[in-house]
Write a structure and sequence with these properties.
The structure holds two protein chains of two kinds. By secondary structure, chain A is mostly beta strands. Chain A has one helix and eight strands, in the order βββαβββββ. Chain A has one domain: Roll (Ubiquitin-like (UB roll)). Chain B is α/β, with parallel strands linked by helices. Chain B is globular and about 65 Å long. Chain B is built from 15 helices and 24 strands. Chain B has three domains: about 210 residues, FAD/NAD(P)-binding domain; about 140 residues, FAD/NAD(P)-binding domain, CATH 3.50.50.60; about 70 residues, BFD-like [2Fe-2S]-binding domain (Arc Repressor Mutant, subunit A), CATH 1.10.10.1100. Classes of the chains: A mainly beta, B alpha/beta.
Chain lengths: ~100, ~450
């Protein structure tokens, strides 16, 4: 699968208003009620890259237990994409912004 | 006497029934839940604005889900409900929680921990690729978000959840490539004397298994998982298993739902100082409880799948029993008939639980055969070979020592997804029982906290 190919497939609940968020600065159209994880993975193949290996990551447990779905805000705050609902104007990064510790979380 | 301060952790079936029982006795419990809405994982409520019916979401359990949600809606004004609160430590009679970046310590006289379960995982080479999800994740994607985890999904593992989620995927219009089950039909047949303790649930299970065959879905039992194929950028591209016949089977797919039944979330019980015991049948440590859910620590009660995997119905009973135990221990009069009826129901649930663990056994034997390069710790990419090296080269034959030297279990999931398998890898490498190898100690915070976490304003 190409990294640009969407991973998740919407099977139901497609009749919802759209919400625009930004991922690495690019606009992404999501649906109201989407988790951040679903908003990204219905448009792309992954959420981030592993810090400890070569591979892309796309979450694993979807119940806030595994911490595999971390994404970041521009302020360096860490978000769990699986339990972060999208809202208009949400802007996230697929890697932590470059900032000195301890501001970097 | 001042009203006791009771905290319930978790707003799933056990937590909600516990709260209902305490409210009926005139108390106002605090209900701390990490979820944004009640229901737990099993009866997870879909977001506002979603339109699917309860029947679509919960199938045969729709009435139970609706009843639980209605009970909770009624309880809302009568409890101190704290959604979106992570309970991350228990110390000195306080439960430490964090909500939206603010930390707070909540004092309690009694606490009922109903923290639920997560998938029990055995690694397979390639499981770190994007597109491999736990079975629970596959179900949440569908139930909570109306999505499938991929276009062509292979279900790999064992357990009732695998049968259920595969059926839900097919019904929702997803392409189920195959169910590759490590258990054998004779496991299920051998467990029948225990499984008949809940004939209705057994019938549903048989119906699910039959539905896969009727739909013409490929089902293979007794498989040995070999590899999840894929590449670093594109993620999963296929699954390879060895069949009973010794033949290799390779299937193309773009998603894998992986899991071997469930494991209880016991970290808070551990931090509260509860005694644990090794269960030889399921090869795991779990907290010691009496028939009502009292732990070894006075004032700490454990209920639901967070202590024994009895499922949602068992959790509703356990939640009531734990709450009644709190009331009895605080000197309130105990409704003896109700307690004895609930205990009797619970015994059937416990017998069924034991049957399920026999019918879909934890495939501990796979640990010894994991290729050296197989990632055991997904968080930090640590392999079976690296874990075995600390056993052989540094004598780390105890799980916490092996963790300290290898970092397996030290990553951001805190060993939730590698801990049981890592203990089996160490056990196989040392020829010791996992009862001797031990378990990963619970550590606070039970989930990562941001450095920026601040104390809540008083």
């Amino acid at each position: 699968m190409s990294p640009l190919q969407p991973r998740f497939v919407r099977l139901a609940e497609t009749d919802r208003p759209t919400v625009t968020i930004a991922v690495d600065g690019a606009s992404v159209e999501a649906l109201e009620g989407d988790s951040l994880l679903v908003a990204v993975l219905t448009r792309a193949g992954h959420l981030r890259h592993s810090e400890f290996g070569p591979e892309a990551r796309a979450g694993f447990c979807l119940m806030a237990a595994c911490q595999d779905c971390w994404m970041w805000t521009h302020d360096g705050d860490r978000l769990r994409a699986c339990d972060t609902p999208v809202r208009a104007g949400l802007s996230v990064l697929t890697q932590p912004p470059d900032m000195p510790w301890p501001n970097r979380v | 006497m001042a009203e006791p301060r009771v905290i319930i952790v978790g707003a799933g079936p056990a937590g909600v029934r516990a709260a209902e029982t305490l409210v009926a006795a005139g108390l106002r419990p605090t209900v701390v839940d990490e979820g944004r809405r009640d229901g737990g994982q099993i009866y997870r409520r879909q977001p506002e604005g979603f339109a699917r019916s309860s029947a679509e979401l919960y199938g045969t359990e729709a009435a139970r889900a609706e009843a639980l949600h209605a009970t909770f809606d009624d309880l809302r004004p009568k409890i101190d409900y704290r959604p979106g609160h992570l309970a991350w430590n228990v110390a000195d009679g306080h439960l430490h929680v964090v909500h939206d970046g603010s930390a707070e310590a909540l004092p309690f006289d009694a606490m009922i921990v109903a923290a639920g379960a997560t998938d029990r995982l055995m690694p397979v080479k390639g499981w770190q690729h994007a597109g491999v999800y736990s079975l629970g994740a596959a179900q949440i994607a569908l139930k909570s978000q109306g999505c499938a985890i991929g276009r062509r999904v292979v279900f790999l593992g064992t357990g009732p959840l695998m049968q259920l989620v595969a059926a839900q995927y097919r019904k929702a219009g997803a392409q189920v490539v195959a169910l590759l089950d490590t258990s054998r039909l004779w496991h299920q047949i051998r467990a029948l004397p225990k499984l008949v303790s809940r004939p209705d649930v057994l019938a549903k299970g048989v119906g699910l298994a039959a539905s896969h065959l009727l739909a013409g879905t490929m089902v293979r039992r007794g498989v040995t998982p070999v590899e999840i194929f894929g590449d670093a950028d594109g993620g999963v591209s296929g699954v390879g298993v060895r069949l009973v016949s010794g033949r290799d089977l390779r299937l193309a797919c773009d998603a894998v739902a992986l899991g071997y039944h469930l494991r209880p979330e016991t970290q808070l019980a551990d931090l509260a100082g509860c005694d644990f015991t090794f269960d030889a049948a399921t090869r795991q440590f779990w907290p010691v409880i009496d028939e009502d859910g009292r732990s070894s620590v006075p004032g700490i009660y454990l209920a639901g799948d967070g202590v024994r995997i009895q499922g949602a119905d068992g959790a509703e009973i356990a939640g009531q029993l734990a709450a009644l135990a709190v009331l009895a221990d605080r000197g309130r009069s105990a409704p003896t008939e109700q307690i004895s009826r609930l205990r009797q129901q619970r015994r059937a649930m416990e017998r069924f639980r034991a049957g399920i663990s026999e019918a879909f056994p934890w495939p501990h034997h796979l640990a010894a055969g994991l290729a050296e390069e197989t990632v055991v710790c997904r968080c930090e990419g640590i392999t079976a070979g690296e874990l075995r090296a600390v056993v052989h080269d540094k004598g780390a034959d105890e799980m916490n020592r092996a963790k300290a030297l290898s970092r397996v279990g030290m990553g951001r999931c805190q060993g939730r997804y590698c801990g049981h398998a890592a203990a089996e890898v160490v056990a196989a490498a040392t020829q010791l029982s996992p009862a001797v190898v031990g378990r990963l100690r619970g550590q606070a915070p039970v989930k990562p906290l941001a450095i920026r976490t601040r104390r809540a304003a008083p």
